[in-house]
Design brief:
This protein is mainly α. It has 2 domains: 220 residues, Serine Threonine Protein Phosphatase 5, Tetratricopeptide repeat (Alpha Horseshoe), CATH 1.25.40; 241 residues, Four Helix Bundle (Hemerythrin (Met), subunit A), CATH 1.20.120. The protein is built from 19 helices and 10 strands. The strands form 5 sheets. It has a two-stranded antiparallel ribbon with strand order 1-3. A two-stranded antiparallel ribbon has the order 2-8. A two-stranded antiparallel ribbon has the order 4-7. Strand 5 and strand 6 form a beta hairpin. Helix 6 packs antiparallel against helix 7.
């Protein structure tokens, strides 16, 4: 591994992009002295690492968009289609995440030397979160010998992911211990963009992260005692919307701090991350196998249609359902590569701070990208709704006690409350947006979901829990990827011939295809086996003599996969 210098400049260039440029960030470059990183104030270190972590996982980056395609929430024409991420695509992301880890080590060491235990505790929680996500993405990677340059280690070994998870649990315990020591301490303020220095909320986040990690290893470890201990004290976990673990972004003001995925609104050619028709059809109630005939009230919050149902597209449409227009995974249609910048349906006010679909059918050019939305959406790392879905899964698996249906019902409520909370407290639109929690359609939808749950087999109940969690977590692509790999839910679109797929065409409602027909029979195919982890950074493989050979992603599984 190459030596990674301390770098705390604009995080727009920290997250590697796949043909997506989410807008130029203008954060203060505090990189005055690379050879003396401890000269950087600890408050500046904290802000920088929190911004960097949020940007790394957001839609609009390699991981956020790429794994959004892999979990069939998003689509993009090009390499991401048909599971196309390669080793060189990982170089920027890998380097950025290890730079962030280096900065966290500096922050923790500096906090310890300055006697600032709250800063140290926060740093340890963030480090545990970062490395657990890295394990979920890649599996084995450098940990114990990472950042040991002063000890003469320049070619760090790759540690087993299971051992790194154990180190993350230890880091969380250490972080909680540090956060318990607040008496007479310097407490972070606005430099902590997540919780404003609230040690109690950081401890809740740490405990909920433990719950998440235990849930993720439940198929390979006996974790009943640990999860029961955590769930026995709900007050010690994230227990309300206001306690959710999120990395905020701001509007375009003196600095352009908008959510990376909002960059598609500003792009000269839009379509860098468009909604997947697979998710759309589930939400519309078109899928005959789950949530059939049950239209999701989140649709106008999640998707903004630039078209009306009757307006023609710029070029022929690959997938269209009235006003909704996007691209199909594995499409062999001649329309898949056409430019439709002013026709694509875009991600909406939630999750990227874009526009609520009020039916006006105006293009972003007509509205103006600068005012179409605020872009001030947070990256949701671990929310109250997430915590409830974890609990429902654990009850279903027999690892926790409680009423599975009641917890699932509460998780549905908080999924809708989460949309409302984020819009009102973070995005703050100038556009008039209804309160989703009070819409009659929301009550109707939930009632139908619970009716389907009541009639379901045990396996179908788990599918419903994981599918609703997937729908709720649009924007948290890494965790959706993790959940699919360990539970095989939600069911994903699977064109032939790879992965046992038999689907060679789909029925597009239309008007779509070269002749704008309704319906349009669209040919599809995929010859790539599903990647059970992402490839290692190619630069790491080539420059670290202790690195393993590049993995075969269709066979290499993370340790928590049975």
């Amino acid at each position: 591994m190459r030596r990674i210098n301390i770098y705390l400049g604009s995080f727009a260039i920290a997250a590697s992009l796949v043909t997506i440029v989410p807008g130029c960030k203008k954060y203060l470059d505090v990189n005055q002295n690379l050879n003396d990183p401890t000269s950087v104030p600890i408050s500046t270190l904290m802000t920088a690492v929190e911004q960097r972590i949020g940007a790394t996982f957001a839609i609009g980056t390699t991981l956020g968009t790429g794994l959004g395609v892999y979990t069939h929430q998003l689509m993009q024409y090009g390499g991401l289609n048909r599971y196309g991420l390669l080793g060189p695509d990982m170089d920027g992301t890998w380097s950025s995440m290890y730079t962030t880890a280096t900065n966290l080590d500096v922050m923790i060491d500096q906090a310890s030397s300055e006697g600032k235990s709250v800063y140290s505790g926060i740093g340890k929680v963030l480090k545990a979160y970062l490395f657990s996500m890295m394990v979920d993405i890649w599996g084995n990677l450098p940990y114990t010998e990472f950042n040991q340059f002063k000890a003469g280690i320049k070619q760090p070994k790759f540690d087993d992911g299971s051992d790194i998870y154990d180190a993350c649990f230890s880091l969380l315990d250490q972080g909680i211990s540090d956060l318990n020591n607040t008496a007479g301490q310097v407490i972070p303020g606005n430099d902590d963009i997540v919780y404003k220095g609230n040690a109690t909320l950081w401890k809740k986040a740490a405990n909920t992260l433990k719950l998440k990690l235990y849930t993720q290893v439940r198929l390979v470890r006996n974790v009943g005692t640990q999860v029961q201990a955590l769930l026995s004290n709900p007050a010690g976990l994230i227990n309300s919307q206001a306690e959710s673990f999120m990395f905020p972004f701001g509007p375009n003001g003196a600095t352009d701090d908008r959510y990376p995925g909002y960059g598609d609104y500003n792009a000269a050619q839009r379509g860098g991350q468009v909604p997947s028709p697979w998710m759309y059809e589930i939400m519309k109630g078109y899928n005959p196998n789950i949530l059939e005939a049950n239209e999701d009230p989140r649709i106008p919050f999640y998707f903004y249609n630039q078209l009306s149902a009757t307006r023609a597209t710029e070029n022929c449409a690959d997938y269209r359902d009235g006003a909704f227009m996007t691209l199909t995974f594995g499409s062999n249609s001649p329309c898949v590569g056409g430019s439709n910048s002013n026709s694509y349906t875009l991600l909406g006010i939630y999750p990227i701070g874009g526009r609520y679909d009020d039916g006006s059918a105006k293009t972003i050019n007509e509205i103006g990208a600068a005012t179409a939305g605020t872009g001030a959406a947070p990256q949701r790392a671990l929310t109250y709704a997430d915590r409830l879905y974890l609990e429902a899964e654990l009850i279903h698996a027999g690892l926790a006690t409680g009423d599975e249906r009641a917890v699932f019902s509460k998780a549905l409520d908080e999924s809708f409350n989460q949309v409302e909370y984020v819009i009102r407290n973070f995005i703050k639109p100038s556009q008039s947006v209804p309160n989703i929690t009070t819409l009659p359609a929301t009550t109707t939808y939930k009632t139908s979901v619970l009716s389907e749950f009541d009639a379901a087999s045990p396996d179908k109940k788990l599918e419903l829990i994981m599918t609703e969690k997937w729908l709720s977590r649009l924007g948290n692509s890494v965790d959706n990827y993790t959940d699919y790999r360990r539970t095989k839910y939600p069911i994903l679109f699977n064109p032939a011939p790879a992965n046992g797929g038999t689907t060679t065409s789909i029925v597009v409602p239309g008007p779509a295809g070269p002749s704008a027909t309704s319906p349009y029979i669209e040919p599809v195919s995929n010859g790539t086996e599903y990647p059970w982890s992402l490839p290692y950074s190619q630069a790491e493989i080539e420059q670290n003599t202790n690195a393993p050979a590049q993995k075969v992603v269709s066979t290499f599984k993370v340790f928590w996969q049975p």
